[in-house]
Amino acid sequence: MTRRHALPGSRSLRPMLIGLFGAVWLAGCSSQAVQPESGTNPSEAYTQLGMAYLERDNLPRAQRALNRALEVAPNDAETLQALAMVYQRQGEHELADEHFLRALSSNAGFTRARNNYAAFLYDRGRLRDACSQLEQATQDTQYDNRAQLFANLGQCQREMGDLDAAVTSLERAQAIDMRSPRSYFTLAEIEYAQGNHSRAWEQLQSFMRLAGTTPASLELARDIADARGDIENRRFFTEQLNALGHAP
């Protein structure tokens, strides 16, 4: 069974800086506009405001704030990638692609934007381009979530059918951060697909210790138990899935 998952970490937004704005009413206040406080950098203030709206899925206000930011600083990479994410959620795929590329052209070392762009490409089915962006992103040795980048790359390579490269990337993710759960799950899926059921179970156990159980992990655990002829565990995981409302 093939399971395809969205790339993790693709929608993380910087939290709005405390004190940058005054009281912000995001719901049910159509008549009250939110303005940046005086004394702040206008471009940064409007970008932070737009991202705060984006976090709350208020796309029209996010777009207006980010456009105001671009009026002040047309080539600001942070603003451009935030606007790309607005367009992505609106289904404006060409505009999203354009703004991601503009952000990376403005700041080629903007690794978070590159990961977000890779996730966009992945969701659009442009796997080769997504993997290419992730390969570039993983070169940033100072990126805080570098293990996640390798896990994302491994998942992308797996979807491309390059399992050897995928395993290498996923093992690299584990070497960088042994508590990176996604790498264990994807490796478990690969090992299961290749008939290595004991190794698949080891990887899946590591995932569940780190991340707990999820419907996908319970399904895989059930399938591994079934492949190993472990009737008791197959029944147990099936019951767990039924309790969550997932059919066998």
Automatic annotation (TrEMBL):
SUPFAM superfamilies in alphabetical order: TPR-like
Keyword annotations of the record: TPR repeat
Record GO terms (molecular function): identical protein binding
Protein's UniProt keywords contain Magnesium: no
Repeat (TPR) residue spans along the chain: 43-76, 77-110, 147-180
Keyword Magnesium tagged: no
InterPro entries xref list: Pilus_4_PilW, TPR-like_helical_dom_sf, TPR_rpt
NCBIfam families: type_IV_pilW (TIGR02521)
Protein name, entry field: Type IV pilus assembly protein PilF
Organism phylogeny: Bacteria, Pseudomonadati, Pseudomonadota, Gammaproteobacteria, Oceanospirillales
